[in-house]
Design goal:
By secondary structure, this protein is α/β, with parallel strands linked by helices. The chain has eight helices and twelve strands.
């Protein structure tokens, strides 16, 4: 069985429109490795995340995606989560009236039903709180209700630790964060990778290289106009930070990418 989140020649349109957004994406995320998907706004990065997660607003018109050999597009969104796919949203929704503790328990039960007795699940939660440096009072708050941007993203890191997915897509996790919140989220990601997330494959979607200061990618992919136009190591992110995306556009135009 071929392990990895493997995307081949993927074409996607927005359901309400006729325009094609993704125009033949080729991408493989291996277990235990960090891939960064970078590109300017409007290049199709979030479209890829939503299409893989099964958002009904996006229609796959061609290509394939497999998760450890299983056809991802043959699965409903909930079964994709059960198969081991996690999506961190750019703008997490608030759920007033639902406590973080109950939300985490329901999420774990939905993805991995009955795999942990209550006592062991409780220990898992407190282990993750300790790992991420989150106070236990967090558990009694309502999900994202009145949370700061940094708190919302740290809750998603806590969910990531509790669900223990095979592959995690983080869609612009750094969006809207100040320097301190960004550092806290970056530290959380590093802690998760060093702990129980060491076998998780990560796809970090961003248009700024800021978060990559805290979790260095093994591979950097650059997307423009619905296509991946360049790949490299962490030095590619540094090039984009120093020179912007115009340098990549010039390479693509000259055929050098």
């Amino acid at each position: 069985m071929s392990r990895g989140l493997i995307v081949s020649n993927l074409h996607v349109t927005v359901t309400a429109q006729s325009a094609e957004i993704l125009k033949g994406i080729e991408l493989t995320v291996e277990p235990g490795r960090v891939h960064a998907l970078m590109g300017p706004n409007g290049s199709g990065k979030s479209t890829l995340a939503f299409a893989l997660a099964g958002h009904p607003g996006y229609q796959v018109t061609g290509g394939s995606a497999t998760l450890d050999g299983e056809d991802l597009f043959a699965l409903t969104p909930d079964k994709r989560a059960k198969a081991g796919l996690f999506l961190s949203f750019q703008y997490p929704a608030a759920i007033p009236g639902v406590s973080v503790a109950n939300f985490l328990r329901a999420s774990r039960m939905a993805v991995k039903p009955s795999d942990l007795p209550p006592a062991k699940f409780r220990q898992l939660i407190f282990d993750q709180l300790d790992l991420l440096g989150i106070d236990t009072s967090f558990l009694g708050r309502y999900v994202n209700d009145g949370f700061s941007g940094g708190e919302k993203k740290r809750l998603e890191m806590l969910q990531l630790g509790i669900l223990e997915p095979k592959y995690a897509i983080l869609d612009e996790t750094d969006s809207g964060l100040d320097v301190d919140a960004l550092r806290a989220v970056g530290d959380s990601l590093r802690a998760l990778r060093a702990g129980n997330g060491s076998e998780t494959g990560f796809l970090i979607i961003t248009h700024y290289p800021r978060i990559l200061q805290y979790i260095e990618p093994d591979v950097v992919h650059v997307m423009m106009d619905g296509r991946i136009v360049k790949m490299g190591d962490a030095r590619l992110a540094h090039q984009i930070e120093a020179q912007g995306y115009d340098s990549i556009r010039e390479e693509v135009a000259s055929g050098a990418a």
